[in-house]
Design brief:
Beta-Lactamase, five-stranded antiparallel beta sheet, 13 strands
Length: about 475
């Protein structure tokens, strides 16, 4: 624009000089006579006109340039009409051709810039979505670059290794998860990630034990290296899935099969041995044969009880058991079972103490199942109580919680403190009391399943070695007078 203003000033100056030249010529030749004066004037006018024409073309050219510069600033194409002036039109055509070519190029660049901005926005959105997915995953996820520095991690990973992602990004992974407590699991994980980042291991899967909240936890670690188009390692992704519970369940299944096999084998061995002796004629007199028959019968009953307990527990856990509930008085139900157990208790010289009737202690229960619960608790109390001991059963109604609580207290051998929490587990038998009585370790587990899973109640136990134990259960009071079938 400065050059255009200079051009306009130059044209104006040339016109002024031409007019001065005309006036000076007329004055200078005025003394030579009218002819010379007229000739001088005409020459001056012609010179002024010529100078003015050139000045006009320069003025027009300056305006053209101003218009082109304005279009250039606004990013528009030039659309200049011909002026009929050769020099201006030729210059217009050259500038217009060059400028319009540049304008098309600029438009193409602008389109590419807009497309790039759209792609960048899409990539940013995809990145946010990816981060949101990773942060919402319950499994621990860790992403590192080719230099073993942290790029991304979710909250689950921070919980395992004890770091916060916001304050840990771009830090070496070995520095972040090194606890300084000689944790072999952390060292193994760091080595696994390092091997993947160096391209030594592309995909690997390994079970690693970590210490979380002071307790050992087992994780299924899947580590994969990420490669670029040149097949160079550009990062590593690690996913850690907590399989502690799965391993515990698998171990429980193995233990269950082992216990069942053992419990089935014992009575079957006895039945097989005594039946073979009978077949071989080793029982020559009636008394011996009767003893053999008794052993076979008792072992067969034991085997049948074991199978029934296993089937009942399996039906309850799978939800296939048929439950018929009706309003029943707990006191009346207890009295019925006491009559069955008193004979067994009297044989061992054990006193059984009942309770006074309660006005209202009705509950909605499956009568047969709760009867089995009461019988199991009473029979266990008799089994583990020595001669001249006592067993007391009591019922209590809690109106605040609208529940009935039943307690069976004995003066038996008791249970060590470290084993009390396990007495309701499948096949669990207190090691210190194994010599006191025989059993399968399924009775108390069946009690727990019936009370808690089917009747929404609660089982409990307190015990002290050498003093005795109290086993009990709690059921909600009946609030309706209608029975139901589940």
């Amino acid at each position: 624009m400065k050059s255009v203003r200079n051009l306009n000033g130059m044209a104006t100056g040339i016109v002024a000089i031409g007019l001065i030249a005309v006036n000076f010529t007329a004055w200078h030749y005025s003394g030579l006579g009218a002819g010379w004066s007229l000739a001088a004037f005409v020459c001056g006018v012609i010179g002024a006109v010529v100078v003015s024409l050139f000045s006009w073309q320069y003025l027009l050219l300056s305006r053209r340039i101003s218009s082109i510069v304005k279009c250039l600033k606004e990013g528009k194409k030039t659309h200049l009409k011909p002026t009929g002036t050769g020099m201006v039109d030729e210059l217009d055509e050259a500038i217009d051709s060059r400028f319009n070519g540049n304008a098309s190029y600029i438009e193409e660049l602008e389109k590419q810039i807009q497309e790039s901005e759209v792609k960048i926005q899409i990539l940013r959105r995809q990145k946010k979505n990816t981060e949101a997915i990773i942060y919402s995953i319950r499994d621990a996820v860790i992403v590192i670059d080719e230099f073993d520095k942290l790029l991304m991690a979710n909250e689950a990973a921070g919980d395992i290794f004890g770091f916060e992602f916001k304050n840990s990004q771009h830090k070496p992974i070995a520095e972040l998860i090194s606890s300084g407590k000689n944790n072999s699991g952390e060292k193994e994980f760091v080595n696994l990630v390092h091997q993947s980042s160096k391209g030594k291991v592309r995909h690997t899967r390994r079970e690693i034990d970590f210490i979380k909240s002071g307790e050992p936890r087992t994780y299924d670690c899947i580590v994969s290296s990420v490669h670029d188009q040149a097949e160079q390692v550009s990062g590593v992704v690690a996913v850690l899935h907590d399989i502690t519970r799965e391993k515990e369940i698998a171990q429980m299944k193995n233990d269950f099969v082992s216990h069942v096999s053992h419990e089935l084998k014992t009575p079957l061995s006895s039945i097989t041995a005594y039946s073979e002796m009978l077949m071989d004629g080793e029982a020559e007199d009636a008394k011996t044969r009767k003893e053999f028959y008794s052993v076979i019968q008792n072992q067969a009953k034991r085997l049948n009880r074991l199978i029934e307990d296993i089937l009942n527990i399996s039906r309850i856990e799978s939800g296939l058991v048929k439950v018929e509930k009706e309003p029943v008085s707990v006191t009346i139900l207890i009295e019925e079972q006491l009559q069955m157990i008193k004979g067994y208790a009297e044989e061992k010289g054990i006193e059984v103490i009942g309770q006074k009737p309660i006005i209202f202690d009705q509950v909605y229960i499956d009568r047969d199942m709760i009867s089995q619960v009461i019988v199991n608790l009473l029979s266990n109390a008799v089994k583990y109580t020595p001669s001249k001991g006592s067993i007391k059963i009591a019922t209590e109604v809690d109106e605040i919680t609208s529940s009935v609580r039943v307690r069976v207290t004995d003066t038996g051998v008791g249970i060590p403190e470290n084993e009390v929490d396990h007495v309701f587990d499948k096949f669990y038998r207190v090691k210190a009391n194994e010599g006191q009585a025989k059993g399968t370790g399924l009775g108390l587990n069946l009690v727990k399943q019936i009370v808690e899973k089917i009747h929404n109640g609660r089982v409990f136990v307190t015990s002290k070695p050498g003093v005795g134990s109290t086993f009990g259960f709690e059921l909600p009071l009946a609030t309706e007078k209608v029975g139901q079938t589940v």
